[in-house]
Specification:
single chain; 347 residues; alpha/beta; five-stranded mixed β-sheet
Length: 347
């Protein structure tokens, strides 16, 4: 078997090929597009051996993975941080990185990550694109509010972008160029409203048939948009052996530094999908007022004080929600507070 290390950049794919004994077979490069990958596969096919490859996780790595697997290769995507921990280098170049990945593949030490199926990738893209549009809309609305403050105009209405708010904006008479940027911002907000509504209609339609979303929406703080986002980011719940594993994947657990008798807990690890963290924190904001979590939230908030109590308490509730999500999805049962009887879980 040949072991291939692949180091990807925008314009080039560096390739290092080793045999089973660790001898160098080839050092080359290829274009990271469909044609270049087909050409690379054809070149290595001339050796007449099966090929196992490793590439670091980054944007574009999944495309390389898919194309080379179609050519008959076995390809693993490696966690970039764990590769750095396994093979710290005094000198780092693209060619050396490719050699390191080939050597890890030969020694069967590739810290491979879970690769979502095309269906899960599509679900993630839909949920993430909606969030992308919403963030642009929020930025534009903030810009409109800032323009009002800059010219001393109060905002007496609860929704500046509702009917009453639009009438107020039409009577302001701002000077140029602020009047032009205000009009452009309002136009873009209306366009984004249309696009977000279309995304949400699609998510609602697809979420109705999703095996996880109806269960997730039974939990406090999780609506159908957050439910779809959480389901897409988790993918297959069976890859998490316990609630603690899922909590670790969310990145909502503190980093741990241990040495000798010292045990220091640092800031949040943030080592999972940021969209899953965002969804759980958003859900926790509302779940903190639910009877199942309200007392715990208030105790943590009071214990830690005004400066950081609310933030830490919200993260704590988000972790508890992640644990509840694991139980709901593995048991195929809707949410029930801790200690609820089995009949309540099955209802």
């Amino acid at each position: 078997m040949l072991h291939v290390g692949l180091d990807l950049c925008r314009t080039r794919l560096d390739v290092h090929v080793l045999d089973e004994a660790g001898a160098r077979v080839a050092v080359t490069s290829a274009s990271p597009d469909a044609g270049g990958l087909v050409s690379l596969a054809d070149r290595l096919a001339g050796f007449g051996q099966p090929v196992r490859a490793a590439i670091e996780s980054m944007n574009g790595a999944r495309f390389v993975h898919d194309q080379l697997e179609l050519a008959g290769w076995e390809v693993e995507i490696a966690d970039a941080q764990r590769v750095k921990g396994l093979a710290p280098l005094a000198c780092k170049t693209d060619r050396i990185d490719a050699w390191v990945l080939a050597e890890l593949s030969r020694r069967d030490l590739v810290p491979a990550i879970w690769l979502p199926t095309p269906g899960v990738r599509a679900e993630r893209e839909r949920a993430r694109f909606r969030l992308h549009l919403v963030r642009h809309r929020v930025a534009l609305k903030n810009r409109v509010h800032a323009a009002l403050l800059a010219f001393g105009h109060p905002c007496p209405v609860s929704d500046l972008f509702g009917v009453a708010g639009r009438k107020l904006l039409a009577t302001l008479g701002l000077p140029e160029p602020w009047a032009g940027t205000m009009a452009a911002s309002l136009y873009l907000i209306d366009e984004l409203d249309t696009q977000v509504e279309a995304c949400e209609r699609e998510l609602r339609k697809l979420g109705a048939d999703h095996p996880y979303v109806p269960l997730l929406t039974s939990a406090p703080g999780i609506g159908w948009v957050l439910g779809y986002t959480i389901a897409a980011e988790i993918g297959d719940i069976t890859r998490f052996a316990s609630p603690a594993k899922l909590c670790g994947y969310t990145g909502l657990c503190p980093a741990v530094y241990q040495s000798g008798g010292k045990d220091h807990r640092g800031p949040l690890a943030k080592n999972g999908p940021k969209y899953l963290r965002w969804a759980l924190i958003e859900a926790a904001t509302n779940a903190a007022h639910h009877p199942a979590y309200r007392d715990r939230y208030q105790r943590t908030k009071t214990r830690l004080g005004k400066q950081r109590g609310a933030k830490v308490a919200r993260v704590d509730i988000a972790r508890k929600l992640a644990e509840a999500v694991w139980y709901m999805l593995t048991r195929h049962q809707p949410f029930a507070p801790a200690g609820a009887p089995g009949s309540a879980l099955a209802s």
